[in-house]
Amino acid sequence: MAASHRTAWLLAGALLIAAALAFGLWITVAGTPGFDPRVVNAVAGWRTSAGLWLAATHVGDGWPRSLAGVAIAGLLVWKGRRRAAAVLVGTMTAVAVTNSGLKMGFARPRPDLLAHLDRVSDLSFPSGHAASNMAFWLLLVLLVDRRLAVPALVVVALIGVSRVVLGVHWPSDVLAGWLLGAGFACAGRALAGSAPSRA
Question: Is residue 95 a contact partner of residue 184, using CB atoms and an 8 Å limit?
Fold first, then answer.
């Protein structure tokens, strides 16, 4: 990858991560955005299909994502793309650790407008499901195969929306998670160097 392209990816990643942080600071100072409760109330009727939304959210849980990540990293190593494999594993670890730290830093409580339909034990901002799955799926598009873009978008969107429908996240938590995950994925793309094997 040319130095200019690497710089562009790194800059994009930095801007996205900065946007997530700025969003969190704004919420800390100004309070819950007005669109948060409006969106939560708007999707409350979707909870009649709670089983489907739980299935979507569990697709984005840590253990299936970790298993898939290890398998894909192994495939990349087998294809001689050790650097891409290391970037995939390293980026997923970094976004998880960073997200946990931001949760503690912002210390935003979980929403209480609706009963929680999924078990949660930590804080709310940003959404770990949104951040980790955005980073993982976007990295697959950027490092493995760009034809995964549409299914990746659908999966990431469903997982993020499921967190709101299940009552365990504010929409702003999910948006910030998407920004954070996309930022880490862009940074990973810069570090990996080579483009996907298929366009």
Answer: yes
Average pLDDT over residues 160-184: 98
pLDDT, tens digit, 9 for 90 and up, residues 46-71: 999 999 999 999 999 999 999 999 99
Residues ≥6 apart with Cβ < 8 Å to 164: 39, 40, 43, 170, 171, 174
Helical axes 82-106 vs 3-30, angle rounded to 10°: 20
User: Could you tell me the pTM of the whole model?
Assistant: 0.94
Q: What is the torsion angle, in degrees rounded to the nearest 10, for the CA atoms of residue 161, residue 149, residue 84 and residue 62?
A: 20
**Rounded mean pLDDT of 77-102?**
95
Cα 175 from Cα 161, distance rounded (Å): 10
Strand partners, 82: none
Residue 96 and residue 128 in contact, taking contact as beta carbons nearer than 8 Å: yes
Angle of helix 128-143 relative to helix 82-106, nearest 10 degrees?
160
Cα separations in angstroms, 92 against 158, 159, 185 = 20, 17, 9
As a whole number of angstroms, the distance between CA 183 and CA 190 comes to 11
The single-letter DSSP state of residue 166 is: T
Output DSSP code: residue 198.
B
Note the pLDDT tens digit of each residue in 14-40. 999 999 999 999 999 999 999 999 999
Give the C-alpha separation, 87 to 55, whole Å.
29
- Residues with Cβ within 8 Å of residue 125, at least 6 apart in sequence: 24, 27, 102, 103, 106, 108, 170, 172, 173, 176
